[in-house]
Amino acid sequence: MTATATRPAPAPPTWNPLSLWYSDGWTTTKRNLIKIKRTPDMLVFAVIQPIMFVLLFSQVYAGAIAVQGTDYVQFLMAGIFAQTVVFGSTFSGSAMAQDLKDGIIDRFRSLPMSSSAVLVGRTNGDLVLNTISMIIMMATGFLVGWRVNSSVGEFFAGLGLLLLFSYAFSWVMALLGMSVRSPEVINNASFIILFPITFISNAFVPIETLPDPLRIFAELNPVSALVQAARELFGNEGSAPVPDVWTLQNPVLTVLIGVVVLLVVFVPLCIRKFASISSR
Amino acid sequence: MTIIEASGLTKIYKSKTGPVHALAGLDLTVPRGTVKAILGPNGAGKTTVVKILTTLIRPDTGTAIVDGINVLDDPKAVRSIIGVSGQYAAVDENLTGFENLEMVGRLYHLGGAASRRRAQELIDLFELTAAGNRPVKGFSGGMRRRIDLAGALVFNPKILFLDEPTTGLDPRSRIALWGVINKLVDNGTTVLLTTQYLEEADQLADSIAVIDYGKVIAEGTSDELKAQIGGHRVVIALVDAADADTAREVLARYGAGEPQVSSDGRGIDVAVTDGPPALQHVLADLRTAGIQLHDAGMRRPTLDDVFLKLTGHKADMAVGENEDDKMEKVK
């Protein structure tokens, strides 16, 4: 410790708020991308688990579950995509809780950076992880016989819709993570929420096979709309009539409205929460 | 000229056993370009003061001005002139030492090239060269601590806040850090640090504020504080506890206060204003009285002595625990 400390240049005065926001968001995103690269269990979760789900569901249930007008693998894939991106958003929750526990939130909050940058970087990290998962799952699905029966434009619209929903949902989980403050609790708690909303839906079985109370929940479940939208955009919907519920009759619009509502509500809540939290 | 001015700060945390008054009307001023140490035991409110001044938490009442900026009104402006190292190493486990520091530089908006240059300088300064390019995950506690401290120096700050900076550092790193701090102060940086060690406050600080139960209970230079409690303490250990009363009288003769007798009746110590001659007198008188000793010597006053003198209670009320571990924030 003998070198002398030199004074680095101060912030260039030409930086406007927007470019600072962009720069801070990119810096924190890079942090999360490095984390993905260096945390093997995260990559396992993002890569191995989707492969496992595709193989398990397609091989185990294909013979048992009948879907009108198409085979089960075609029907299943949109459901698994939706489930995986929803589960993937929990990383934001546990990562925010972990950051609080580690004390690095205090470092960030004492820096003159954009107040949303840590959250932007975090949710961007989820988006990248979910994109990787989607590509892996699509390749696996293709191997077990899944085919896209729509145009290229519709395919990308479906992919975009799934990722958009997962991105919005990441903000919900980030708020939960900052409120709960314990990565272990958030992992357990999120499953209590995520299993019902992904399984009590049209993701794995046709909705009309469910008993009444669950069917009503499933029809109104936003995840059902997401699955329905993806199924239609990938051309996997079969010939079964869509339940006569507005959200399932207009699934793409429903998902888009849902995304906007989630972002409008949870982004400001997250930023406000972030401005008042401190480690331990 | 004053650079930090806090007055009437209060903060109440909710805990399982009821509300805890972390700060109970704390006033603090720090002159520009000086080092101020906040000395106090765990749970006294040291971390809470630092968190308020560094914009991390808001006080329930009171005001805090840092370099003319009201902390509550414009936290972002405060953040652009301070460097902070908290009690826990605030580093990203998955980034290397270099990447951690580069990230902090970019978030201070130094730009890419300057951030990398500064990160490398600090890696060298804190002797982290070998570990600079490995993820922090594999680092020892002391190395994490040094990266965190380096993080506080990425942007040569106007004011440096260090919350128990040498906790968890080996003696060599501790002395090296003291060197770095002294150099910064020579260049005009103001430093506010918290510590549990009187020796550290003594080494670094121009002025010391002793706090207890969220209030400043004494303030002054280290010499002024020591004058209050005596410069040294003469400590003896008796072979036979039956000699305690006689020995106590001898110590009282040369001491600056009441001698303290340990619970087993064989250890006695007293504050003295002039250590070596006092020790010589004590030993001569004890010899004349025919009292046998296991051990005898002088020691510097510790935080315990300061506390015992100033508050009448020991400073070990929460040793090993952090004040915030036991408390949940009200909001």
TrEMBL record, chain A:
Its main location: membrane. It is found in: Cell membrane; Membrane. The chain crosses the membrane at residues 43-66, 72-91, 127-149, 155-178, 185-205, 252-271. One of its GO terms (molecular function) is ABC-type transporter activity. Keywords: Antibiotic resistance, Cell membrane, Membrane, Transmembrane, Transmembrane helix, Transport. It is a multi-pass membrane protein. One of its GO terms (biological process) is response to antibiotic. One of its GO terms (cellular component) is ATP-binding cassette (ABC) transporter complex. It comes from the Bacteria. InterPro entries: ABC2_TM, ABC2_TM_bact-type, ABC_2_transport, Nod_factor_ABC_transporter. Residues 41-277 form the ABC transmembrane type-2 domain. Belongs to the ABC-2 integral membrane protein family. This is Transport permease protein. It comes from Cryobacterium adonitolivorans.
Automatic annotation (TrEMBL), chain B:
GO terms for cellular component: plasma membrane. Keywords: Antibiotic resistance, ATP-binding, Cell membrane, Membrane, Nucleotide-binding, Translocase, Transport. It is a peripheral membrane protein. One of its GO terms (biological process) is doxorubicin transport. PROSITE patterns: ABC_TRANSPORTER_1, ABC_TRANSPORTER_2. Its main location: membrane. SUPFAM superfamilies: P-loop containing nucleoside triphosphate hydrolases (SSF52540). GO terms for molecular function: ATP binding; ATP hydrolysis activity. The keyword Membrane applies. Residues 4-238 form the ABC transporter domain. It is found in: Cell membrane. PANTHER family: ABC TRANSPORTER ATP-BINDING PROTEIN (PTHR42711), DOXORUBICIN RESISTANCE ATP-BINDING PROTEIN DRRA (PTHR42711:SF19). NCBIfam families: drrA (TIGR01188). Belongs to the ABC transporter superfamily. Drug exporter-1 (DrugE1) (TC 3.A.1.105) family. This is ATP-binding cassette domain-containing protein. It comes from Cryobacterium adonitolivorans.
